[in-house]
Specification:
Elements (H helix, E strand, L loop, with lengths): L6 E6 L18 H15 L4 E5 L28 E5 L10 H7 L4 E7 L1 H14 L3 E10 L3 E2 L5 E2 L1 H15 L2 E3 L1 H8 L2
Parallel strand pairs: 1-4, 2-3, 4-5, 5-8
Antiparallel strand pairs: 6-7
Helix pairs in contact: 3-4
Length: 187
């Protein structure tokens, strides 16, 4: 079980920029619907919520603040009064005040979802665990992209996701689905 008042939902990089080139094929077409379920639950219960946005420092990036891709995806825009942490690297804790915000609110458990499973979600989960947070990654509210390995072969996004979620589960986080966390929080 978890204490909902000490548990923060952290949507990570749920931004439009991932719909532009050079991002390739992705997995989990249900990510948006599942992520919106989480947001609706947290908002309905008035639970702690902090949005994370990737503000790339690379001018040509689809996530650079000057690019339309920096905007949140439809349905994931923060509401008035909801906190937003901007970051420029993979981990939401590096170069930001996220840890300070969480500790000031007495948060000890994090529920993470977003884009991408293998990059910013995974890196944030690893750092969160190292900082002592109980970390829950919601697998069916994340997605990632096909990757090319050193030999030039394509690794399908589903395989990338499975491997990263298995690594997180082995050492850094509890990996679950939306239905699992909804049951823990209650409707």
């Amino acid at each position: 079980m978890i204490d909902p008042q000490r548990t923060a939902l952290i949507p990570i990089d749920v931004q439009r920029g991932f719909d532009y080139p050079p991002w390739g094929p992705r997995n989990n077409p249900r990510m948006e619907a599942n992520g919106q379920r989480l947001l609706q639950l947290w908002r309905a219960k008035g639970l702690p919520l902090i949005h994370v946005r990737h503000d790339s420092i690379i001018d040509a990036s689809t996530l650079h603040p000057s690019h339309p891709g920096n905007a949140f995806r439809p349905g994931f825009e923060p509401l008035a009064g909801e906190a937003v942490v901007g970051k420029s690297v993979n981990a939401a804790f590096i170069g930001t005040d996220l840890d300070l915000r969480l500790r000031r609110r007495g948060i000890d458990t994090l529920v993470l979802f977003g884009i991408s499973t293998d990059m910013c979600v995974s890196t944030t989960a690893r750092v969160a665990s190292n900082l002592g947070y109980r970390t829950l990654v919601i697998a069916d509210a994340c997605f990632c992209f096909d990757l090319v390995d050193a030999d030039g072969s394509v690794i399908a996004a589903d395989a990338v996701s499975r491997a990263h979620l298995a690594t997180l589960r082995a050492e850094f986080a509890e990996v679950m689905n939306v239905d699992d966390i909804v049951a823990m929080i209650g409707v």
